[in-house]
Amino acid sequence: MPELPEVETIVRQLCRQIKGKTITSVRLLWPRTVTGCKAEFCRRLRGMTVAGVSRRGKYIGVEGVDGTFFTVHLRMTGKLVGEISSADRKHLRTQFTFSDGTALYFVDARKFGRLRLWTCRGQACPSLGPEPLRPAVVLTSLRRLKTRRPIKSVLLDQTVLAGIGNIYADEALFQAGMHPLTPAASLGEAQQQRLASVIPKVLRQAILRRGTTLRNYRTVADESGENQEHLNVYGRAGESCFQCGASIEKILINGRSSHYCPSCQKKMSDVRR
DNA sequence: AACAGCACCTGTAGGC
DNA sequence: TGCCTACAGGTGCTGT
Fold first, then answer.
1. N or C: which end of chain A has fewer CB within 10 A?
2. Residue A151 to residues A57, A139, A163, A178, A199: CA-CA distances in angstroms?
């Protein structure tokens, strides 16, 4: 389940791998992978020379020297690989072939991933919030919140901040000592600052570790990340907190599993008691 | 109009 | 062993 750090890792590798190459053919093995007109997608990409690969939130952007721009969203199980294993072949959804004979494979077991053509780079993904890699940017977004929705749900809202998913939302809230059900608009200035300083740290650390591999995420070279070795709460329900020894709890918030330490992450009402 | 809930999908894990 | 169910969760749509 690639989030910002995983996508960033993929983008860096992908850029090295395909920059300067020219696409000679696009094969859609599962056409619904492409949002919008399939024929136009293939037509515009054929002959495209890759100028660069970028990231915006959890979206991978590929730009051609002529300005052609398309995005890849991996959703849960998607991956882009330079070589395809026999096990992956039955989940191959799209194949890009380059003029030098190499290829790029979009593999996605659950068929949730999406490829999409945009008129230009500036028009892509218009509803995404800012990148949460700088404390000042995050703080501005947090200060604007007027909703009573749980802070956990708000961190997953891509229009508020782009790129945070379930793993890093839970990890950031642990680092901030904040209960995931805390109403977003109830955060005080000190709490906003704490969360704003912690989110970029958690994401940057994970980027340095080339992401978190739990189930499906792989780099372009089909390698695992290492951040899963450093998770404090995500996926640790019933295990003891590294900080205080309490048992990590798992609750559902808007249908999404949320992991937290009931002792390190108190609700506001409990803190005042 | 904010917000909740579900559809999209399939592999995997656990229970019996 | 094999069948069944629950679960994984990002996004976009629908309904309230």
1. C
2. 19, 14, 15, 9, 13
Q: Is residue A129 part of a domain?
A: no
Q: Is the CB of A238 under 7 A from strand C?
A: no
pLDDT recorded at residue A268: 67
Identity of the residue numbered A134: R
pTM greater than the 0.90 cutoff: yes
Structure tokens at A126: 């218009």
Q: How many alpha carbons fall within 13 Å on the CB side of residue A62?
A: 28
Which of A95, A123, A151 represents a domain boundary (last residue)?
Answer: A123
Residues A44, A55, A56, A58: which is the catalytic one?
A58
Domain enclosing residue A67, as ranges:
4-123
CB A133 within 7 Å, strand B: no
The alpha helices in A83-223, defined as continuous H runs, are: 86-89, 135-144, 151-156, 166-175, 189-208
Say how far A156 CA is from B4 C1', in Å.
15
Asked if A14 contacts A224 with a C-beta cutoff of 8 angstroms, the reply is: no
Could you tell me which residues come within 8 angstroms of residue A137 by beta carbon, excluding any fewer than 6 positions away? A130, A131
Please count the structural domains in chain A: 2
The two tokens of residue A199 are 């989110």
Whole-number distance in Å between A75 CA and C11 C1':
8
- Across all strands, nucleotide nearest A145 (CA–C1'): B2
Which residues 44 to 103 of A reach strand C, CB within 7 A? Answer: 57-59, 73, 75-76
Q: Is the distance between the Cβ of A117 and the closest atom of strand C smaller than 7 Å?
A: no
pLDDT above 60: residue A271: no
Instruction: Mention every residue, 6+ apart, whose C-beta is less than 8 A from residue A216.
Output: A1, A76, A77, A79, A109
Active site residue A3: yes
pLDDT of residue A182: 94
Q: Is residue A251 part of a domain?
A: yes
